[in-house]
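TA notes. Do not distribute before section.
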Amino acid sequence: MKELFFIVGLGNPGKEYENTRHNIGFEVVDFISNQLNINLLKLKFKALIGDLEIEGKKIVLVKPQTFMNLSGESIKLLAEWYKISLKNIIIIYDDIDLEIGKIKIKPKGSSGTHNGMKSIIYNLECDEFPRIRIGIGKPLKKWDLAHYVLAKFHETEKNIINESVITASDAAIEIIKSGIDSAMNKYN
């Protein structure tokens, strides 16, 4: 049987959330699906999914449709259905604690301040799965955090973010092809 991997991008469904800081995970999954010509049209277990094969490994691209704070519900249902090893679930999401565009890959860890990750760790009852964090920077002191993460990127940030989307997608594929250590050495 082929080894199975999920590439999960976190975000919020709906046009009003497109291109916002909180939806950077969705952007990475969309980039991969466009590059590899995979349609994300199946709605299954509260997520849009599409699948493909790379070097004999099956990959399921996942965009939970539960809204960010409930992302774990969808991931749990998918993980149970596919009977996937949690170490093969790659989660891609935004991080306010990293400077804009910076990529950080880890094999496991806490949720930090990210509610989507809190939901995933709670529902999977485990934090031992790889994650790719993409820096979105911290809000100015006068900004409310919720408004900041739901805001669109400034024009001056778009090139940096576009590069980080490409890098994060390359890092996810590297994890699948060569393992987490290789990806951390190449992209951290």
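Switch to the second chain here.
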Amino acid sequence: MSRFIMAVLAALFAASPMHLAAAQQKTHTFSGLCAYYSGRGSGLTAAHRSLPFGTRIRVTDLKTSRSVIVTINDRGPFGLHRVLDLSISAARALGMLNRGVVHVRADVL
């Protein structure tokens, strides 16, 4: 009988909203090289290979600690070793126009 009660309590805990909210609060962070492109997209947007369109991420320049929040609206980058391509507006906000390629940390919001 006590095993049954423990199993029911474990199932209730696993399905509780508080437990689900805690699981959803885990953030996804990645880092790597980032460039910008003058192509499609105006505003604070970015290209990523696999994040769903509409995903918002905070991109932080690891050298200057400046950050900008962008929305994924394109696929790419297709160059090796890069994790993101930013629109010119986002690159300007990050202060990277004169450097071209920077090392960033990206936090999915």
